[in-house]
Write a structure and sequence with these properties.
single chain; about 150 residues; alpha/beta; D-tyrosyl-trna(Tyr) Deacylase, Chain: A; 6-stranded mixed β-sheet; two-stranded antiparallel sheet; 8 strands
Amino acid sequence: MRIVIQRVKRASVSTADNYFVKIGKGLLVLLGVGCTDDQSDVDWLAQKLVSLRIFDDENGVMNLSVQDIKGEILLISQFTLLARTKKGNRPSYLDAASPDISIPLYKSFTKKLEELLQREVSTGVFGANMEVELINDGPVTIIIDSKNRQ
């Protein structure tokens, strides 16, 4: 699993069929699920995400987590994070999991975040064409891959 984390002042996602959700201060998280991912990736990455100290404390030092500040999370599935781009000019998505694997893991990741945070996590619409808007705070953008734990 690969995530792109953006610390935001606010973010929203919408679809053409009038789905709309927004968050205030917190994290916009783009999630890519790979073919070889499983529940251990979900558990490790969710814990890492909620514990990541990327919010400023009273001294202006990144020392607080989304959990510490009681921030919100907007989670959006994005298979393109698993793109292979080494050969040619058209990305290959062979490493991205098929929906029968990725949908259950996406739902499990959402549920795990909610358990850890003890509050609801906002989501996009799996597989939909979405418009995402955000005000990146910092900017702070971090990429974490569960296959690179060491």
